Amino acid sequence: MSGPHAPTGALPADREVLVDGRPLRVFDGHLPNVGEYVQALGRAPFTRTEVAREDTADYRHWATEMKIDALVRQPIFEVTRRAVLGFSSPGHGYRPYRAYTNVASYGDMLFTHTDCLPEQRDLTALWYLCDRWDVEWGGETVFYDANDELMCAVRPRPGRLVVFDGAIKHAGRAPNRICYTPRYTFAIKFERVAVG
């Protein structure tokens, strides 16, 4: 929930879309030190281990993992936590269980997928980590409804955060040919948990 009815401390969204009744929210301007993350990622040990779906396991893409205990000490996590707080409901909250960065370049193939089963109601928080991004470079994350119709596209911008229900089918798109900048997306997966 965003706006005047958001829980105390929740980050207000700049844009909100519902895809088949499932929320997707975009947050801008909350990561002033995005350049520090970009510099660190330039030295990170990426491995070609990530797969979108079981049937695309032969087409792996580059990722580097971050341990949850290290994640929660990062300033980026506090902003993410406040954005996710707006999705909480009475009796339920969210706990991070995985954090990793993907990198894509021109020519990479990224497939459609979901991050959880519909009944799980897990969330994905996706940060775009770049110093700058030209609209002609592409690299959008596209979101589909149950009929595989495109419902929303979120383009990379420095320090942009999109938080969405993990059951929404989506795909990252690789940068266009004219882009020589890596497309870094930092994903934090949250599971829905009961809180008392």
From TrEMBL:
Record flagged with keyword Iron: yes
> Is Protein biosynthesis tagged as a keyword?
no
Kindly list the GO molecular function terms attached to this UniProt entry: dioxygenase activity; iron ion binding; L-ascorbic acid binding; oxidoreductase activity, acting on paired donors, with incorporation or reduction of molecular oxygen
Describe the location of the Fe2OG dioxygenase domain by residue ranges.
Answer: 86-192
Q: Which UniProt keywords apply?
A: Dioxygenase, Iron, Metal-binding, Oxidoreductase, Vitamin C
Family annotation (Pfam families): 2OG-FeII_Oxy_3 (PF13640)
Q: Which cofactor does it need?
A: L-ascorbate
SMART domains the UniProt entry points to: P4Hc (SM00702)
This one is known as 2OG-Fe(II) oxygenase
Q: What is the lineage of its organism?
A: Bacteria, Pseudomonadati, Pseudomonadota, Gammaproteobacteria, Lysobacterales
